[in-house]
Protein backbone atom coordinates (compact mmCIF):
# COMPACT_ATOMS: atom_id res chain seq x y z
CA UNK A 1 0.00 0.00 0.00
CA UNK A 2 2.96 2.34 0.53
CA UNK A 3 3.92 1.76 -3.11
CA UNK A 4 0.33 2.27 -4.29
CA UNK A 5 0.14 5.51 -2.32
CA UNK A 6 3.25 6.69 -4.15
CA UNK A 7 1.58 5.93 -7.48
CA UNK A 8 -1.61 7.76 -6.44
CA UNK A 9 0.41 10.76 -5.27
CA UNK A 10 2.07 11.06 -8.68
CA UNK A 11 5.54 9.60 -8.17
CA UNK A 12 7.30 9.28 -11.51
CA UNK A 13 8.76 5.91 -10.55
CA UNK A 14 8.17 3.57 -7.63
CA UNK A 15 10.46 0.65 -6.81
CA UNK A 16 9.25 -2.23 -4.64
CA UNK A 17 11.86 -4.41 -2.96
CA UNK A 18 10.74 -7.90 -1.94
CA UNK A 19 11.43 -11.53 -2.63
CA UNK A 20 7.90 -13.03 -2.64
CA UNK A 21 6.94 -13.53 -6.32
CA UNK A 22 3.24 -12.79 -5.79
CA UNK A 23 3.96 -9.47 -4.08
CA UNK A 24 6.42 -8.45 -6.78
CA UNK A 25 3.86 -9.36 -9.45
CA UNK A 26 1.19 -7.30 -7.69
CA UNK A 27 3.58 -4.34 -7.54
CA UNK A 28 4.30 -4.59 -11.26
CA UNK A 29 0.57 -4.71 -12.08
CA UNK A 30 0.00 -1.30 -10.51
CA UNK A 31 2.93 0.26 -12.36
CA UNK A 32 5.80 -0.21 -9.91
CA UNK A 33 9.24 -1.60 -10.73
CA UNK A 34 9.77 -4.92 -8.88
CA UNK A 35 13.18 -5.50 -7.26
CA UNK A 36 14.04 -9.00 -6.01
CA UNK A 37 16.69 -8.56 -3.31
CA UNK A 38 17.76 -12.20 -3.54
CA UNK A 39 19.08 -11.68 -7.06
CA UNK A 40 21.55 -8.91 -6.17
CA UNK A 41 22.01 -5.82 -3.99
CA UNK A 42 18.69 -3.91 -4.22
CA UNK A 43 20.43 -0.54 -3.83
CA UNK A 44 22.59 -1.23 -6.87
CA UNK A 45 19.59 -2.50 -8.84
CA UNK A 46 17.56 0.63 -8.13
CA UNK A 47 20.36 3.11 -8.84
CA UNK A 48 21.12 1.37 -12.13
CA UNK A 49 17.46 1.29 -13.26
CA UNK A 50 16.79 4.84 -12.07
CA UNK A 51 20.09 6.25 -13.35
CA UNK A 52 20.65 7.61 -9.87
CA UNK A 53 19.31 7.68 -6.35
CA UNK A 54 15.66 8.14 -5.35
CA UNK A 55 13.94 11.13 -3.75
CA UNK A 56 12.04 9.22 -1.05
CA UNK A 57 12.36 5.78 0.50
CA UNK A 58 10.09 3.82 2.84
CA UNK A 59 10.90 1.04 5.31
CA UNK A 60 7.65 -0.94 5.57
CA UNK A 61 9.38 -4.01 7.01
CA UNK A 62 10.81 -3.23 10.43
CA UNK A 63 12.95 -5.31 12.76
CA UNK A 64 12.00 -8.60 11.09
CA UNK A 65 13.92 -7.74 7.92
CA UNK A 66 16.13 -10.52 6.57
CA UNK A 67 19.41 -10.78 4.70
CA UNK A 68 19.85 -11.75 1.04
CA UNK A 69 19.28 -15.43 1.85
CA UNK A 70 15.77 -14.57 2.97
CA UNK A 71 16.09 -16.71 6.09
CA UNK A 72 18.34 -14.87 8.57
CA UNK A 73 16.99 -11.90 10.51
CA UNK A 74 18.97 -8.71 9.97
CA UNK A 75 17.06 -5.83 11.59
CA UNK A 76 19.23 -2.98 10.29
CA UNK A 77 19.48 -4.01 6.64
CA UNK A 78 16.50 -2.04 5.29
CA UNK A 79 17.38 1.14 7.18
CA UNK A 80 20.94 0.93 5.86
CA UNK A 81 19.69 0.44 2.31
CA UNK A 82 17.32 3.40 2.61
CA UNK A 83 20.22 5.66 3.56
CA UNK A 84 22.33 4.37 0.68
CA UNK A 85 19.64 4.71 -2.00
CA UNK A 86 18.20 8.14 -1.09
CA UNK A 87 19.70 11.25 -2.62
CA UNK A 88 21.03 14.17 -0.54
CA UNK A 89 18.16 16.19 1.04
CA UNK A 90 15.77 13.31 0.35
CA UNK A 91 13.30 11.82 2.82
CA UNK A 92 13.05 8.51 4.68
CA UNK A 93 9.75 7.18 6.03
CA UNK A 94 9.82 4.38 8.59
CA UNK A 95 6.37 2.94 9.38
CA UNK A 96 8.04 -0.46 9.81
CA UNK A 97 7.80 -1.82 13.36
CA UNK A 98 10.83 -1.63 15.67
CA UNK A 99 10.61 -2.88 19.24
CA UNK A 100 12.47 -1.99 22.47
CA UNK A 101 13.52 -5.62 22.91
CA UNK A 102 13.75 -8.57 20.54
CA UNK A 103 14.78 -11.88 22.19
CA UNK A 104 15.07 -13.55 18.80
CA UNK A 105 17.47 -11.00 17.31
CA UNK A 106 20.74 -12.25 15.79
CA UNK A 107 23.03 -10.24 18.12
CA UNK A 108 23.05 -8.90 21.68
CA UNK A 109 22.77 -5.28 20.60
CA UNK A 110 19.65 -5.87 18.52
CA UNK A 111 18.11 -7.95 21.31
CA UNK A 112 18.09 -4.76 23.40
CA UNK A 113 16.46 -2.77 20.61
CA UNK A 114 19.72 -1.00 19.65
CA UNK A 115 19.81 -0.98 15.86
CA UNK A 116 23.12 0.03 14.29
CA UNK A 117 22.71 2.07 11.11
CA UNK A 118 25.18 3.85 8.83
CA UNK A 119 24.61 7.51 9.63
CA UNK A 120 28.33 8.12 9.82
CA UNK A 121 29.32 5.96 6.91
CA UNK A 122 30.87 7.18 3.66
CA UNK A 123 28.82 6.01 0.70
CA UNK A 124 30.24 4.84 -2.58
CA UNK A 125 26.75 5.11 -4.06
CA UNK A 126 26.70 8.92 -3.70
CA UNK A 127 29.87 9.59 -5.67
CA UNK A 128 28.14 10.28 -9.00
CA UNK A 129 25.99 12.99 -7.46
CA UNK A 130 28.53 14.48 -5.06
CA UNK A 131 30.03 17.86 -5.90
CA UNK A 132 33.53 16.54 -5.21
CA UNK A 133 35.21 13.19 -5.71
CA UNK A 134 34.99 12.50 -1.99
CA UNK A 135 31.70 10.94 -0.90
CA UNK A 136 29.90 12.99 1.77
CA UNK A 137 29.08 11.41 5.12
CA UNK A 138 25.38 10.87 5.72
CA UNK A 139 24.98 13.81 8.12
CA UNK A 140 25.96 16.10 5.24
CA UNK A 141 23.26 14.65 3.01
CA UNK A 142 20.48 16.44 4.87
CA UNK A 143 18.15 13.47 4.93
CA UNK A 144 14.78 13.92 6.62
CA UNK A 145 13.48 11.07 8.77
CA UNK A 146 9.89 10.35 9.78
CA UNK A 147 8.81 7.40 11.90
CA UNK A 148 5.69 5.88 13.43
CA UNK A 149 2.39 4.42 12.34
CA UNK A 150 0.43 5.95 9.50
CA UNK A 151 -1.88 8.70 10.67
CA UNK A 152 -5.01 6.95 9.42
CA UNK A 153 -7.43 9.67 10.52
CA UNK A 154 -5.60 12.20 8.38
CA UNK A 155 -6.01 10.15 5.21
CA UNK A 156 -9.03 7.82 5.54
CA UNK A 157 -11.59 10.23 4.06
CA UNK A 158 -9.20 11.21 1.30
CA UNK A 159 -8.73 7.55 0.37
CA UNK A 160 -12.47 6.91 0.64
CA UNK A 161 -13.18 9.66 -1.89
CA UNK A 162 -10.52 8.33 -4.24
CA UNK A 163 -12.14 4.87 -4.07
CA UNK A 164 -15.64 6.27 -4.67
CA UNK A 165 -14.43 8.24 -7.68
CA UNK A 166 -12.70 5.17 -9.09
CA UNK A 167 -9.23 6.71 -8.94
CA UNK A 168 -8.03 4.25 -6.28
CA UNK A 169 -8.66 0.51 -6.22
CA UNK A 170 -6.78 -0.83 -3.18
CA UNK A 171 -8.59 -4.19 -3.36
CA UNK A 172 -5.81 -5.42 -5.66
CA UNK A 173 -3.81 -6.33 -2.54
CA UNK A 174 -6.30 -9.08 -1.58
CA UNK A 175 -5.02 -12.46 -2.74
CA UNK A 176 -7.66 -14.70 -1.12
CA UNK A 177 -11.15 -14.45 0.36
CA UNK A 178 -12.03 -17.13 2.90
CA UNK A 179 -14.57 -18.22 5.52
CA UNK A 180 -13.57 -17.81 9.15
CA UNK A 181 -13.15 -21.59 9.54
CA UNK A 182 -10.26 -21.43 7.07
CA UNK A 183 -8.43 -18.67 8.97
CA UNK A 184 -5.86 -20.95 10.72
CA UNK A 185 -4.90 -22.58 7.42
CA UNK A 186 -4.67 -19.23 5.64
CA UNK A 187 -2.56 -17.69 8.39
CA UNK A 188 -0.11 -20.58 8.27
CA UNK A 189 0.27 -20.23 4.51
CA UNK A 190 0.63 -16.47 4.81
CA UNK A 191 3.28 -16.89 7.52
CA UNK A 192 5.23 -19.30 5.30
CA UNK A 193 4.75 -17.08 2.21
CA UNK A 194 3.43 -20.01 0.17
CA UNK A 195 0.70 -20.56 -2.43
CA UNK A 196 0.35 -16.85 -3.03
CA UNK A 197 -1.17 -15.98 0.35
CA UNK A 198 -0.29 -12.31 0.78
CA UNK A 199 -3.40 -10.44 1.94
CA UNK A 200 -6.44 -12.44 3.04
CA UNK A 201 -9.99 -11.15 3.48
CA UNK A 202 -12.05 -13.12 6.01
CA UNK A 203 -15.86 -13.27 5.73
CA UNK A 204 -16.98 -14.20 9.27
CA UNK A 205 -20.61 -14.77 8.19
CA UNK A 206 -19.83 -16.81 5.09
CA UNK A 207 -19.28 -15.87 1.43
CA UNK A 208 -20.82 -12.63 0.26
CA UNK A 209 -22.65 -14.43 -2.59
CA UNK A 210 -24.75 -16.24 0.01
CA UNK A 211 -26.27 -12.95 1.15
CA UNK A 212 -26.40 -11.32 -2.25
CA UNK A 213 -28.50 -14.18 -3.64
CA UNK A 214 -30.97 -14.21 -0.73
Order of helices and strands: HEHEHEHEHEHEHEH
Oligomer type: single chain
**Biggest sheet architecture:** 3 strands, parallel
- Through-space gap between termini: 34 Å
Overall helicity = 25-40%
What is the approximate shape?
globular
Strand composition percent: 15-25%
Give unreliable regions as ranges: 122-137, 210-214
**Total beta strand runs:** 7
Mean pLDDT: 85
The assigned structural class equals alpha/beta
Q: How many H/I helical runs? A: 8
Q: Strand order within the widest sheet?
A: 3-4-5
Using only C-alpha atoms, the radius of gyration works out to 20 Å
Summary, kept brief:
With 214 residues, this protein is an alpha/beta fold.
Give keywords.
214 residues; alpha/beta; three-stranded parallel sheet; two-stranded parallel ribbon; 8 helices; globular
Report on this model:
There is one protein chain. The chain is an alpha/beta fold. The chain has 8 helices and 7 strands. The protein is globular and about 55 Å long.
Fold topology:
Layout: H1 2-8, E1 15-18, H2 21-29, E2 33-36, H3 42-50, E3 54-58, H4 77-85, E4 86-94, H5 108-111, E5 144-147, H6 152-165, E6 176-179, H7 183-192, E7 200-203, H8 208-212
Parallel strand pairs: 1-2, 3-4, 4-5, 6-7
Amino acid sequence: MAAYSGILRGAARVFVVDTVPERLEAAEKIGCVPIDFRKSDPVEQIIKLNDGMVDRAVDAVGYQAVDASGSKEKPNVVLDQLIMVTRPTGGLGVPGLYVPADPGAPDEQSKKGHILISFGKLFEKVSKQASTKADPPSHEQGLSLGTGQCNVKAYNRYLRDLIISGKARPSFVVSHEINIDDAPMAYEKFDKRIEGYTKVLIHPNGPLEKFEDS
